[in-house]
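Anyone opening a protein record will find just a pair of labelled lines. The record below illustrates this layout.
***
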Amino acid sequence: MEARAIDTHAHLFLKEFAADLEAVTYRAQQVCEAVLLPNLDTSTLPQVAAIVALAPGFYYGMIGLHPTHVGPDFEAQLAQLEGALERGSWVAIGEVGMDLYHTPQTRPWQEEALARQAEWARRYKLPLSIHFRQALEETLSVLQPFIGEVEGVFHCFTGSYEEAKQILDAGFYMGIGGVITYKSAEPLREALRKVPLERLLLETDSPYLAPVPHRGKRNESSYLLYIARTLAEVRGLPLTRVLEETSHQARTLFHLPYGKNGS
């Protein structure tokens, strides 16, 4: 397999990988040409930076405040993160967005945090990596003033074609992960038969949402191939084409260099 995948969303800096990160990295490098690491809050930023330093040119970091980590101190966290944004090298503002499933009570703070971070994306010309749990319309509403000026990906898309169309109409990409392999996900697969391939990216969201045949276990970036194969089957396309197109789109959106194999 010459073409390789790009995992556009993996939390390999979490404790689930502390014991065997070197082995996880080795396996990921057999499948992926790059893995992108979305930050969660100020406490995880050093861990993201450490993993990027472990394999520069393979791991790339994002910087942002995850919506479920938005709390009373969000202003202070944003100030610290903006300082780190100005000093460091990052491929995206993320993981940002809104979550009205886990933390609906912080909605006003989430809206403010998302708007502030979308402004960073506009100012620094970086894409957004967007979390939107039970909050698609609310997230799009906050992003409305930035549409046409800011790009990004709605990560972990699992919805209907109607929801996909809202994302597409706003000019964003969709991140496709392990859920596409689940037996219960036929509505998602049906939606993805209609969505232009050039608006899709691959992701694992490791350690969460492992694809079949590893469902229920720890996810990792090397499992991205199961997701790519299922997407290829859904679209009736060769695996190599899915890998080539999704990787090209990831490089374009996140301004990544070509992999060592030139794929």
In short: The longest helix spans residues 107-124.
